Amino acid sequence: MNPPENSTVIGKSVVVRGDISGKEDLFLDGDIQGNINLSENRLTLGPDALIVADVTVRDLVVFGKLTGNIYATGRVDLRQSASVIGDITAGRLSIEESAMLKGHVELKAVEAQPTAVSQRTSPVASSKPLVLQPKS
């Protein structure tokens, strides 16, 4: 697997014990223990990655193994070879067949910037909450 273009690379022979933070996209394929904070950037965990960390990112793509909680303002992609043990809080989540996830998922809507159209329209008011129930 080739790292995404314009990403900083930490290779599979690298071992890191401590926190990682930065303001650029990062590709990790090594053995990392600590917290990872790239709140405005994309993190890609390669197929050889062995990560034990809480991760705070904009977007996350996982090919390897991650034990820890994920906080992503954008999208989390768990690819076919991914293994994640921990809770995920994200704007969007994609899980490929054969990926493994053990934890809870909470999807949160990303706050969109108001547009000219949305500023002119009024919200729809409803006096009753929407309740969905399975068919009997």
Keywords:
136 residues; mainly beta; six-stranded parallel sheet
Written overview of the protein:
Belongs to the bactofilin family. It comes from Edaphobacter paludis. Residues 115-125 have a biased composition (Polar residues). This protein has one domain (8-110). Strands 1, 3, 4, 6, 8, 10, 11, 13, 14 and 16 form a ten-stranded parallel β-sheet that branches. A six-stranded parallel β-sheet has the order 2-5-7-9-12-15, with no helix packed on it. The protein has one helix spanning 116-120; strands at residues 8-10, 15-17, 20-21, 26-28, 31-33, 36-45, 50-52, 55-62, 65-67, 70-72, 75-78, 83-85, 88-90, 92-95, 100-102, 105-107. The longest helix is centred in the last third of the chain and has 5 residues, at 116-120. It is mostly beta strands. The N and C termini lie far apart (48 Å). The model is unreliable at 113-118 (pLDDT under 50). The protein has one helix and 16 strands.
Please compute the radius of gyration using only Cα atoms: 18 Å
Structural class: mainly beta
Instruction: Indicate how many domains the architecture comprises.
Output: 1
Would you identify the regions where 5 or more consecutive residues have pLDDT less than 50?
113-118
Global outline: globular
Amino-to-carboxy terminus distance: 48 Å
Count of individual beta strands:
16
Biased composition (Polar residues): 115-125
Protein name: Polymer-forming cytoskeletal protein
Family: Belongs to the bactofilin family.
Organism: Edaphobacter paludis
